[in-house]
């Protein structure tokens, strides 16, 4: 991908701590653009719980069409609002965040996990943690399939259907092999629950084994999701790249955030790797209503998401510049509690 | 439940380390029976990978009918065999272990997690961990539902259907409230993914909220499965009783095993709480083919499973006696590596 002189960026700050962390990431983006000689044109979009409470609208077709025109989307967090008792649980997450992932075919949900120098892991022996989870983003149990019969009665049944397609899994697994092959350790682990979820499990295994033959230099292994949570506790540095389904990836990356010192450092790329739609970059954490508006939220994950965004748009040098600055900042302030804007200022230095 | 003078026990030692750990648990059971003045009649059943390789049979209707006559089942582990390349992946787990859970309607999968004195947690600040997971055992994504279309082609789709019933969830949640109410902290946490798996999530939430009203002394809260893995890493002592679905319970209890110093201490009761069928007690860990037959497997989880078995049969004193002995043994040998039979001998002392 060639570098663009100007980036046409959509910004969805969202609810809760969203606006404060996103504005710090914007400061960092602006500074890097200045240093590296390109420009960023930003268009804010008002979406989330507050927007829904005010307009009754979650995400309209018009907004989707407008968002589709951008090079990429920077996303804060949605869901929380002081009036959130009025917001049906999960509605905003599904109708905004998941809808964007599905509408823009973000089939790669990319989540790096690193124990940064200066970050404090709750494990006594964390080792050198540096892996990436390649989570499926557009199918599995997130498909919104399933239903309810005899609702509210003692005879109710409720189903959830996990949909898994060769189409979705092949492109996912291929991306993961490509990524593993580009890394120093060249190791790829498939995480699933093939002994119980046999249908989906066999489809994952089939593509995993088939594509492995095309990447003889990539070392492969498999572990069940339950065993993976054990390894993440006892030996997280055994992982290099993990490929897994939508739900298992959700679970593993929150745990990975915790073992690397908190999800305050975990960034996520919702990537349409075929580049038909804009990709979207966000922190893994949520809108944290309890600390919103107090200038205490850690903007690091969002700043790292901004770096992923630049990398996706071909600006590897600018991305690396941000990551180096974050690393230096964390090493210089180990375990420190700082204000939201102070962290960004320190990173900018 | 009144005490029985004689226990009619079925013993399924299974594969891998199964036989060696089960025989140590039998030694402990025999000794406790002698001390507490009751008898145990044991009937061994040959089931597992080795049995399948030799007979082509996983679990016949005749064997099921015979097992149904026992007061309880002590189960080791199945799946591993030196010839296991010949065993289709997951076949034995599904056709023996899961089949028993479903056939005997083991709707409560009870998994206590404790950081025993002397056990070494990989967390630097584990706190005082002592919680119980009440995992659903007979439905959810384990129902074996779902299927495959256009198998082996680039147009394949594979589904997994999670089946959730009011029948299954009400009895589960009721059991969990009863258990929480009987404990000192009286706290119950529902773990699910209600923001994404809305159909099943609402059914769980409905019974959780309804039954909560009957237990005003039980403090309740909710957390998503992804957040639960964070809490298990950063603050596991926040949990007292957790109630959750079959798959989430599988994942959480392996992670819980790891944070409490290894699944060598984690026991599991597959309980038919309505007592229509025998309940089954097993270690959470598997058949560990890599260390089988070397007298190095830790029998503690199986011995604790035997204690749960006695408690289920009304022998609370004998169960507590075993648990006290295990505690003392662990405290006396912190972090020690001992042979399988030595651990049991030490516990017997
Ligand atoms: C908010 C929720 C729908 C979302 C998910 O489950 O994917 C979040 O947990 C995440 O990991 O991005
Ligand atoms: C062996 C497997 C089918 C089983 C499960 O998934 O329930 C195991 O992991 C367990 O936790 O008992």
UniProtKB/TrEMBL annotation, chains A, B:
**Any GO MF annotation of the entry:** metal ion binding
Task: Extract the Gene3D superfamilies matched here.
Answer: Isopropylmalate Dehydrogenase (3.40.718.10)
> What residues does the Isopropylmalate dehydrogenase-like domain cover?
8-347
- Does the keyword Glycoprotein feature in the UniProt annotation? no
UniProtKB keywords: Manganese, Metal-binding, NAD, Oxidoreductase
PANTHER family named in the record: D-MALATE DEHYDROGENASE [DECARBOXYLATING] (PTHR43275)
* Protein name per its UniProtKB record: 3-isopropylmalate dehydrogenase
Organism per entry: Rothia aerolata
**Source organism lineage?**
Bacteria, Bacillati, Actinomycetota, Actinomycetes, Micrococcales
């Amino acid at each position: 991908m060639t570098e663009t002189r100007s980036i046409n960026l959509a910004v969805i700050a969202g609810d809760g701590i969203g606006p404060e962390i996103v504005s710090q990431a914007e400061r960092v983006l602006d500074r890097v653009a200045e240093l590296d000689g390109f420009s960023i044109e930003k268009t804010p979009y008002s979406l989330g719980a507050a927007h829904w409470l005010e307009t009754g609208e979650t995400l309209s077709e018009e907004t989707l069409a407008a968002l589709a025109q951008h090079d990429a989307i920077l996303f804060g967090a949605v869901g929380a609002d002081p009036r959130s008792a009025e917001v049906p649980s999960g509605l905003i997450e599904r109708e905004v965040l998941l809808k964007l992932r599905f509408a823009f075919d973000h089939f790669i949900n990319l989540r790096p996990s690193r124990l940064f120098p200066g970050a404090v892991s709750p494990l006594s022996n964390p080792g050198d943690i540096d892996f990436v989870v390649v989570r499926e983003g557009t199918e599995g149990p997130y498909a919104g399939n399933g239903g309810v019969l005899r609702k509210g009665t003692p005879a109710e049944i409720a189903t959830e259907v996990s949909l898994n397609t060769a189409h979705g899994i092949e492109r996912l697994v291929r991306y993961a092999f490509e990524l593993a092959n580009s890394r120093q350790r060249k190791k790829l682990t498939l995480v699933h629950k093939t002994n119980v979820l046999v249908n989906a499990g066999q489809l994952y295994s089939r593509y995993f084994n088939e594509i492995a033959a095309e990447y003889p230099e990539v070392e492969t292994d498999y572990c069940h999701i339950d065993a993976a949570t054990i390894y993440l506790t006892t030996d997280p540095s055994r992982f290099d790249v993990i490929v897994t389904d939508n739900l298992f990836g959700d679970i593993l990356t929150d745990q990975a955030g915790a073992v690397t010192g908190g999800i305050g450092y975990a960034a996520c790329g919702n990537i349409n790797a075929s580049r038909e739609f804009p990709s979207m970059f966000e922190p893994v954490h949520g809108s944290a209503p309890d600390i919103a508006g107090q200038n205490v939220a850690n903007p690091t994950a969002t700043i790292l998401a901004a770096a992923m965004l630049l990398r996706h748009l071909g600006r590897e040098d600018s991305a690396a510049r941000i990551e180096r600055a974050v690393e230096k900042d964390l090493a210089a302030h180990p375990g420190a509690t700082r204000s939201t804007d102070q962290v960004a200022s320190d990173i900018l230095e």
